[in-house]
Amino acid sequence: MQFTAWTFVGLCCLVAGTFAAQLAPIRPAAAAPRPAAPPSTLALELRSIFRQIPGKQIEKLVQAYLLNDEEFQAVIRDINSLQAYRLSRQLLVQPEVRQLLQWLSQQLILSGSSLKIFEDLELEIKVLNKYPHASQLVNGIRGFELDFYQIYPLELIRSLLEPSATQSSPALTELWRRLVAVLPAYERVIGSPQGKLFIQKLQARGVAVQDVDALIRYQFGWSNATLGGNNYPSYDYTDYLGQSSYY
Ligand SMILES: *[C@@H]1O[C@H](CO)[C@@H](O)[C@H](O)[C@H]1NC(C)=O
């Protein structure tokens, strides 16, 4: 479930086709020429952020667990269940999410791309393992969580998205504002009866749901608290935990 941040972003891909199809004819061909807006650079900017995510490393980790770890396999089955699919549809139809995706799709089209750029984030897992010793390295859900948090650059990605002295792109700033606005939709869905049931299921599987939740909230600017320092080696979180805004 640690890919939830990805899953969320991946949701964009799910609807990419639909939205792209609906939004393609944005302007009638005969529209009067308008003063040209500055070209959007969102697609380029997002691509350069995606490049900071070590996709190959994450792929190798997921592959090792997917092929060798029963606890992890069970969670992956849950994530791919009809129940989880319905939950993701429920999230997609929330007004805040629809508005975000519609805006994102338009901006990406204006910058010469489409929601398909999120396909760059998809994992490609090979079925046959070239490294037989991988079976010795897996260590249940907890082991996966520890490894994943070491690899995934949570703070870096946020710092590239969030407006700051170094991030002053108008397109990214607007994207950030809209991502932050999705929080009520997220809370509505995880607080729904179906959402609660699914969370219980994951908890029963040993997933540290509160950590996944903290990761998602931190990544999208819904919270300024990163993962607790007690359960995880601090890595890049140390700097952040030093600040008074933690909890
Ligand atoms: C996180 O910190 C920033 C900067 O101090 C602030 O603008 C923002 O509102 C905070 N977000 C939350 C969810 O507390």
From TrEMBL:
The keyword Signal applies. The keyword Transport does not apply. Keywords: Signal. Residues 1-20 form the signal peptide. InterPro entries: Ins_allergen (IPR010629). Pfam families: Ins_allergen_rp. This is Protein G12.
